[in-house]
Design goal:
nine-stranded mixed β-sheet; Dihydrodipicolinate Reductase, domain 2; Rossmann fold; globular; about 400 residues; 2 domains
Length: about 400
Amino acid sequence: MANILDEFKEVHNEAVIDASKKLRIGIIGCGWIAKAHLDSYLKQPDIEIVAGADIIPGKAEAFFKKANMEGVKCYASGEEMVNDKSLKLDAVSICTYNRQHAPCAIQALKAGVHVLLEKPFTVTTEEAVEVMKAERESGKILSIGFQPRLDDNMKMVKEVVQSGVLGHIYYVQTGGGRRRGIPTPFGTSFIEDATAGLGALADIGCYSLDMVLNSLGYPKPLTVTGVKSDFFGKDPNYIGYKNCGHPEYAEKFGVDDFAAAFIRLEGGIVIDFRIAWAMNLDTSSDTIIYGTKGSLRIPSTECWNGSIGGDLVIYHEVAGNQVTTKLPMKKDVPGAPSNFDKKIRSFLDAIKNGTAAPVPSSEILYNQAILDSIAKSSDLGREVEVVIPEI
C-alpha cells in the first residue's frame, strides 16, 4: 500500500524567526515543570524572561538564581505580577499545581496577557468555562500545554483517521499506564487533593484522551460511566514511597492512581478508556481505533508519557483479501526541536502572527469535561450526562 505510506510522509520546513521584536515573558509557579518552560524559552531568540512568581516565599528568587538569571523580577503571587504594568508583559506560562490553574489563568487574561497554561486545563468543567469566559473577554491567546499532539507520530495518527481510510469510526480502546509511576519525587503537590484535585486522570489521562479525540476532530462527549481508585497511593508499602524515603505520603494521597470509563460521543462513537499511575502490569494495552473499513492499532509504551511504542498498523481489506499495512514510526531527528520546544515555539508564533491558539481551549474543554465526569461518575456510582455550560 505505497500510496498510503506516501500520503503520510513528512515535509520539513525551517521556520525563520524574527528576533527584532522580543516578547516579554513571565512564569507563574516556579517548580520542576517551570524549569522545562524556562529551558525551552531560553532557546528562542525572540523572548525575554522578565518576571517570575511563586506563593512560597523565596522560591521564585531561588529558581532564577539557580538558572543564573538574578536580574529577573520576582513576585509573591501571579496576580501581583500580571497586574504590574511596568513589566509590559506579553505572555505568561502558568506552571502551578492543578487547582491554581483556573484562578491564575483568569487573572492573567483579565490583565491583558497571553497565556500558555500547563495541562490539565483545570480540575472541573465549571472552572474551564470561567477561564474561557475570561479568554473571550480579553481577546488574548490561551493555549493548553498538550505537547504530545505536536509529535510527528501523533500527527500521523490524526492524518490516518481523517483520511477516511478507516471508514466510520465507532469504537475506540485507549489509555495508558505505568507499572510504578506515582510522581513521588516531586513532593506532594501531585497527590494531595488540596493541590492536585485529580491524579492519574489529569496527569497522563488527559494525553490519552487528546490522542484519540484530536484524531476524531473532538466530537462532543454525551455520557460517562467512570470509576477511579487509590489502592497503590494509599499503601505506605508502595515501593515508590520507600524509594524516595517518604512512606508518610500514603496518608496525604487524596487523588486517583487508576481510572477507567465508558464514554459515549456524538456520532455514535464509544471510547473504552483506562489510565494508571501504578498497576501490576507492564502496559494497559494498545490503543485501537475501530472503523467500518479498517482499524488502526497504536502500540502502547510501558511508561505512558504521550508517545507511541511502535509502528502503526492498519487492518483492512484489499480486493477481498484481509491485509495489514504498517506505517513506520517516525524517529526523532537529531538536533530537531523537542515536542516541548514545539509547544513553546507555536505559542510564541501565535502571539506574533495573530493566529489561533495552537491547542485551543474550545477543544480541551471537552477533554476536561470527560475527566471531570469520570470523577463525578465514580463518586456517584452511576452514569452521568456530560453537561457543558454556555460560554
